[in-house]
Amino acid sequence: MYTLLETARAHPEAECSVREKLLSDLLDPSQAEPLPVLLLNMVTKFCAGQFSQQFPVKKALLLLWKASLLTLGPLADIHERRNAARRAAGLSPIAEDTQRVCRAMRPCSPPPPSGVDGADPQQQNLVFVMPRRGAGRKSAAASSAAAAAAAAAAAAAASSSSAGAQDPTDLADKRNEQSEQRKRLLPWQPKVSQRELQAYLHQVREKFLGARAAAAAAGDTDSLAGLPRPIHESVAVLKAHLYISLAELQMKREDEIARYPMTKGRSERVECTPAELLYRAMLPSVPQYMIALLKILLAAAPTSKSKTESINLSMELLQEELPSSLSNSQRLSTDVNRHKEVIAKSVSGFLLLLLKHLKLSHVYQFEYIAQHLVFANCIPLILKFFNQNIAGYVQNSNRLSGFEFPESLFRPDNFELSEDFASATTGCSWRNMFTCLCLARVLNKLAKAKHSRTMMLVVFKSAPIIKRALRVRHPMLQLYLLKLLKLQTKYLGRQWRKVNMNLMSCIYEKVRHRLTDDWAFANDLDARPWDFQSEECSLRNAVDRFNHRRYGLGDPALPEGYQPLDNNLSSVLSREVPLAPDFCHGGYEMWLEQEVFSTPINWDLVLQTIAY
């Protein structure tokens, strides 16, 4: 099955009809359980102890990841799909692709060791010796002389080139100048959200016009009466970089449906996309699925111990007889480590793929999965995964030449492993690099724009862990790690920012800027870190209301006064009323005596009322 899915995924242009039939069968809504949900149920039962310890959990997780890749689509297509959805919603497309920008981005230099970081900044400043004034004059004179000589040489070269034919190296020099100018620019365009623009206008109106005028003009982003000219220019700059996301439109529409359920709710059209079908099938058991996946990820972490974990992932590889020779035991140890690496890669890849596609489908689907990941302690789990020697982890390659797919299909029966198979390999283990990158992106998805989850990063002391992981010189990994540091910089204090100025410079250089975000300095509103639980509760209520309205799960979305009323007489009379078991045995006669026979009824008055 794995080979079939990989063949269909690697060759999308071959046999389109067969491939479409396979895709429709994988997520067929008429089936009781689609293939990804079936595999998730198997993994959940394995974690609950209902299956044997020899259950092939690695193969099930790999098949789950590849089936999701085939049905949902790869991560490389997310950018085009998002732009298509933005065009359909009337928004401008996004020109920047994260993968393309990261390919052209140079990695930042790794931070110094922890011993240098923990030194006193005052003692570090004592190391630098101030130059003498005479030396300063000499260096200034030398620099001015060198600048004059360079200017004279440039003028001579310009005159010679203008007198004669054009030098062919001029074009190369111009290209180099353009490339240098491009390098000096920031890689991302800054953004401003609608809420940030409204908050800025409310702040300046309250400052210049008073609190009453600011409250009267709340939500108005067009009127700038009474504000000075520099404020007009700043608002124009903010509006030039205004960015409206699909999530904001979807949340706004859900608020309108909750406010006007009888009109707005009936006009909604839900597309049967693969992400929608998968979410609908996963919805009843999402908490169990997330807990099972995180349990397996915890057991597959390199810092975990098999004796202390509730799930033993190496039982699948252990044979009845233990290996007697040293080479066989080394081979088994390498195979167990490789087994855990493959499991960690498949789980992290599936979680990132699920979050990315569900956020594109609907923001509340993404928030539902993210909330259950947070409730299952996904944030401290990922921090525990990174709390190791990440630079050594991404270089440690547990490979068995001749035993990996597809080499294992073509090896002879009498194949023997060489003696130097356990030698350390130089370079990079792309399997472990992919795992670290996916986990960093998942952690960024969970904590982005969520103050309570950002405080979890601060409470669990993630800053030194992320700082150690920055030693891996991979541009995309460093980008998402710097984003995590940017979220919590304002809560780390002035002393931390003073010691880690190199990280502050890297954040300014690599990460996108929000024009009104003082990410490096905490203001009065952000100084209350424990006042954000109401935001999480309101988000959870909105997600529950969305799930019940669209899928009939959870509390009723409509109030009691807005529930539909059956006015058909025949259907009301034919409705079966549930009665208690003892009502028919003596209770019915007692009810007739108390409620009907003993109650005087003026039937003439009743008939007269009905006639009118």
UniProtKB/TrEMBL annotation:
Residues 159-189 are annotated as: Disordered. This is Far11/STRP C-terminal domain-containing protein. GO terms for cellular component: cytosol. Belongs to the STRIP family. Residues 228-587 form the Far11/STRP C-terminal domain. It comes from Macrostomum lignano. InterPro entries: Far11/STRP, Far11/STRP_C, Far11/STRP_N. One of its GO terms (biological process) is cytoskeleton organization. Residues 171-183 have a biased composition (Basic and acidic residues).
